[in-house]
Amino acid sequence: MNNIEQNNEEYSDSEVDEVEPRLKYVRVRNDLENILQNDAASCIAVHPKFLCLGSHWGMIHLLDHQGNNIRSKTLQAHTVAVNQISIDLNGDFIASCSDDGKVFIYGLYSTENNHNMSMGRLVKSIAIDPNYYKSGSGRKFITGDDKLVLYEKTFLSRIKPTILCEAEGGVRSVAWAGQFVAWASDTGVRIYDLHARCSLCLIKWNRTTEALPEHYRCNLRWSDDTILLIGWVDTVRICQIRKRSLQEMASRDLPEFVVDPISTFRVDFYISGIAPLESQLILLGCLKESDEDGKSQRPTLHVVEPKYQDFSAICANSLTLRGYKEYSCNDYHLDCLTDENRFFIVSPKDIVIASLYDADDRIEWLLSHGKFEQALEAITSNAGKDCKKHSLIYVGRVYLDYLLSHEKYDEAGKLCLKILGRDKKLWEEEVYKFARVHQLRSISSYLPRGDVTLDPLIYEMVLYEYLKMDLDGFLQLIKEWPPNLYTVAAVVNGVLEHLPVHKQRHNILLEALAILYSHDGKYDKALAMYLKLRHKDVFHLIQKHQLYNSIYDMIEGLMDLDAERAIQFFLEKDRVPSNIVVQKLRNNHRYLYMYLDALHRKDTKDSKGKYHGLLVRLYADYSRDKLLPLLRRSDNYPIEEALDICTQRKFYPEMVYLLGRIGNTTEALGLMTRELNDMESAIAFCQEHDDEELWNDLVNYSLDKPVLLSEAITFLLQRIGTYVDPRVMVQRIEPSLEIPGLKNALVKMICDYNLQVSVQEGCKKILSSDYFNLHERLVRFHQKGISMDDYQMCGACHRNIVVKEPRSVVIFYCRHTFHEDCLPNLEVVDNCVICNPQKNVSLERT
């Protein structure tokens, strides 16, 4: 509306503008201003196409909604002030009335049904049939004075009046919707059914509280064809017309429709107009109290939520209408376009249009009141799709500027991610705003780093700010950001420039340099940096870029950094040849031991004896418990050298094993008895080698122990009974020697010896028996002319089979032989039941 001045600043919210308003206001100007300079408005009627303004001089002005005349001539309908104007549904006819007693019906496009009637009495109210424009509708209208009269066109175009009701104190207002008419008098509000020509109800006033002097107007408004809104003095009533059920109508002779109350409540102001707003109400009101000078206060437009006996106030706006101090409640009028939710507020010298806030209006109000979060929510919701003026980018940037101006930099950084999306240009523009206040760190986490990236200079600016103010943050960004976002060489130069400045935090910059060098492909420098820092990321760098050939000279340094991880790294997939590792670690025996031990346990091709000779010495130095198992398990070490190592360190168990391997069993046995004093191992050693001389040596060693002689003899007597002739031992014991447990030891020795003799005798008998049995069988076969080749054994019953004997025999090609009676289901047996080959094996019978 370019020709309507917006004056929201003149209509202030009753709660200091903190409550979000429902309505916005514009003042109608243009031709209307000239009209009201010379005349005054007395009533109004609005239609979606135009509005009709009645004046105190009896004029009817036809204007568009911007206040422009739509007819060249003004209608001089009356000689005094127009009381009420009514428009039909199509906007083709208007009706008006006045205290001059005239009723004026005027067709905007046709004069056929125009009327200019003189009633001879004051006519306060008029209502034209909503369907007046239709031919055959009867061209009806209703007037109200001391009675309510219906006028309708009859045969020969005559106008027929019908008195519907006598009105006590006169008809104060009339409202017509569909087949129902409502009017107000001093008695109350009556609702009438024009089709049934009967009254549906009378809503009486409460005389003690509601009856006031007759100059107070009753405001009637149909919300639709069945809901009536009543505003009388300071009371609001809402009624609904419903159709009776068939059961109700059958019980008594009642009208088809009945009126039900919906809500009744009182307000603390006088009501000048009432209108529906979706599920709420619009009330135009005047305060009951005057100001300090005795003048009227500004009228107020209220939005309320009706309840059954109460209401909730949504918002209220005081209106600065021209000359409001001189006007009373009846000087104001309210009309509306329900479908458009537009409300026309009329005073004698002013017209203001109130309409619902649209999406743009709401966002503008939220922004102007600093409610930026709500504005963002509104623009991103479904309602935001209706915005024509505002966009997410616009609202977001206004909010962003606010946050930056109030030093809320972290919130501003988060907001950028939400509003800037994938727009590279917008990102760069906003980043420079952060740069101007040295707060690039606040936006660094939100900069785009995926499909959309900014100019490399943007990322470098951020890195330089971190380099100056937050070294930890700088290192973190170097780790997180891919190197394609910025020029690596430029950042490297920046780090090198700052190395002398940040001497106390030298390591952070060196780590950053290592990462940057690896990004730049200078892996040798990166590895050197990591090793200098003793940083374990060196392993990841080597593995990531396959730098195995570059680390041969760094093997000991890697072991210093993390020996276990380095060894695991060397051994995995044979990344570093073992001979290289051994060569590089030859001067560090501890690391060499750790590596060769892991290599031996891994059992790779390099661990199968190649370094066992070296490992013997290392085990002797660092892990003796692993030495003897290695000596026993391996044959790939020089025995003499190993024996020298063990001899130097007096590793007697290892020496015993090695002496046994080279055949020096006597010395080995001497070590076990003399140094280790381990008779049980000595006996086991003699049993293993089963040498008579060794046993004699053991006996000699035992008899030569002066301290432990008796115990050693007892132990030997208990153990050697099955290996040595007991007499040899017993004969050499001194008769005067006292031996504890001698009796039991001799008994056990003799029992063991007898058992051995018994076993030998049994074996000899079995051998002799087998010999004679086989010889007898051979003689018998020779007598029958059967050779040993003809002799077989049944694979099922294991009895002897003579193939040439007439008994039926089954022989498979695998040469397994069976008695025919021993094979069940011979007819279906195709395979040897022992071999059970995969393919069928034919059999031959004899």
UniProtKB/TrEMBL annotation:
Name the InterPro entries on file.
ARM-type_fold, Beta-prop_Vps41, Clathrin_H-chain/VPS_repeat, TPR-like_helical_dom_sf, Vps41, Vps41/Vps8, WD40/YVTN_repeat-like_dom_sf, WD40_repeat_dom_sf
Q: Where in the cell is it found?
A: Endosome membrane; Late endosome membrane; Early endosome membrane; Lysosome membrane
Instruction: Provide the topology term for how it sits in the membrane.
Output: Peripheral membrane protein
**Record's keyword annotation contains Metal-binding:** yes
Q: Which SUPFAM superfamilies match?
A: ARM repeat (SSF48371), WD40 repeat-like (SSF50978)
The alphabetized list of GO BP terms reads: cellular response to starvation; endosomal vesicle fusion; macroautophagy; protein targeting to vacuole
- List UniProt keywords, sorted A-Z: Cytoplasmic vesicle, Endosome, Golgi apparatus, Lysosome, Metal-binding, Protein transport, Transport, WD repeat, Zinc, Zinc-finger
Which ranges carry the RING-type domain?
Answer: 794-836
Q: Which Pfam families match?
A: Beta-prop_Vps41, TPR_Vps41, zf_RING_Vps8_fungal
**Record has Oxidoreductase as a keyword:** no
Query: Which windows of the sequence hold CHCR repeats?
Result: 554-711
**Protein family (similarity comment):** Belongs to the VPS41 family.
Please give the function described in this protein's UniProt entry: Plays a role in vesicle-mediated protein trafficking to lysosomal compartments including the endocytic membrane transport pathways.
Listed name of the protein: Vacuolar protein sorting-associated protein 41 homolog
Gene symbol? LOC107271855
